[in-house]
Each structure stands twice: as structure tokens, then as C-alpha cells.
Amino acid sequence: MIQFDLQNKVVFVFDGDCEIGKEIIHLYAKVGAKVLFLSRTHSVDKCIFVLKYKDESASEEIGPLNLGNSSFLKELHQIDIAINNLETDTGKGIIDITPEEWENIMFINLDAPFQLIKMITPLMEKRNDGVIINVSSTSAIDGGNGDIAYAASKSALESMNKALSRELASSNIRVNAVSVGKYDTSDSIPLGRKVTASEIANTIFMLTTPMASYINGQTILLDGGKTLA
Predict the structure, then answer these.
(1) What is the pLDDT of residue 56?
(2) How far apart are the C-alpha atoms of 197 and 84, rounded to whole Å?
(3) I need a labelling partner for 187 at 20 to 30 A (CA). Which of 61, 70, 135, 173 fits?
């Protein structure tokens, strides 16, 4: 059995509140990594990110994170793995979606990840090592259920993923994406069932280990074979 010791690694999970985020945090903490993660709270007119910390034995709240101010990096010396699993959707098509809803989707699914990756990249470049994983969706390929903003944001995220993989490779920073198929029913999926949060977390974990040391700029389809079936 292959075992990984990540006691000297610092992992930054962009959304620690969702089911997938919780699985990711549990998985990395279990193998000894120190995990930073964000929780989202909402004021009257904006989304507020709160930075938290967890390892095998402790957890604590560090405080609000201002995306426009990278001063929090002064307190950090290392981020080895960044996992962008931020996302939201509306389920609305072009007729029903409002400009405000469109802007919110783009902020959570694209703008916030861009700003967070921009903030932490210098830490990885300084160590000449790092892994960035973006969680995408098969909606970027097939349009999903017609949620236009969600599909558009995920397509843009995958393009950003490719560009980052080229730009950061010289600093030994690998950038990959995991494209998750989210379907209402499982009868059209060749494997006959939906993907679990644990399977998503496991795939992300594998891509951040030495086992995937030559995988870069890729989008791994995690859809049970449906997209290409």
C-alpha cells in the first residue's frame, strides 16, 4: 500500500464549507498536512471570506480575508498545494438570469479564484515548487443543464488553467483541473451511478502527489464516462 506523509506540506482549500471541500480537508489533514481553508459568509451586499486553519489535532479561525489586500501573506511562508473548489450556480438560462446574478457567478467561479491564485503564486515561485488544482465541470464541454453563467465561467476557468500551466511550469508549479460531471440522474452514465465527494477528493489528492509529477495543463474528466460515451 502506498502511503504519503505530508507533514511538511501546507494546503490551501478555497472552499472548506461545501461537501467536497470537507472531504478534501479531511483527507489532507489525515495524512499530516496543514490545511488553510476559506469559509464564506454573506453580508447585505457582498461575500466575505474567512480564513481558517486545520491539522490533525487543532483547528482555528484566523480571520477575514480581503481579496484586494495580500497582507495576510506576510504571516505565511509556504503554500505547497492550492485547490480551487469555489463555485456557485443559478440554474437559469439567458432569459431569466439577471445581470447581478451573472456578476456573482463570475466573481465566485472565476474572479475570486484568479485573485487567490495570484496572491499565492509568489509563495510557490519562491520555493520553486507547487501544485494548483481547479475544480471545473463538464458543463464547460456540453453546456450542462442550460445554466449559461455557470457553463461560461467553467469554460473560462479551464482556459485559465491551461494558460497558468504554461506560465508557471518554469517555476516547477503544476496546474491541472478536475472536471466533475453533475447529473440529475445516473441512468445515462456508463458506470451507472453519480460521482461521490470522496471520489472527487481522491482524484484531486492523486494529482497533487509525486505519482502525478508529469501531469500538467490537463483537465481530468470525472464523469463516469458520460461525456465521451
Answers:
(1) 79
(2) 15
(3) 135
Q: Give strand pairing partners of 136.
A: 179
H or E, element range at 161 = helix 148-168
Helix H or strand E encompassing 198: helix 197-207
Q: Are 12 and 21 in contact (CB under 8 A)?
A: no
**Number of Cβ within a 10 Å radius of residue 91:** 12
Distance CA 179, CA 207 (A): 13
**pLDDT tens digits for range 140-196:** 999 888 899 999 999 999 999 999 999 999 999 999 999 999 887 887 899 999 999
User: Quick one: fold of 10-222?
Assistant: Rossmann fold (3.40.50)
Q: What is the pTM of this model?
A: 0.93
CA distances to 39, 144, 187, 213 from 14, rounded to whole Å, are: 8, 23, 32, 22
Cβ contact 54:37 at 8 Å: yes
pLDDT digits (tens, 9 = 90+) for 48-81: 888 898 887 778 888 888 886 666 666 678 999 9
Provide the 3-class DSSP secondary structure of residue 96.
coil
- Check: CB of residue 63 under 8 Å from CB of residue 41: no
Residue 8's CB is within 10 A of a number of other CB atoms, namely 10
C-alpha 133/C-alpha 58 separation (Å) is: 25
* Sign (positive or negative) of CA dihedral 6, 78, 114, 110: positive
Q: Judge whether 114 and 131 are in contact, CB under 8 Å.
A: no
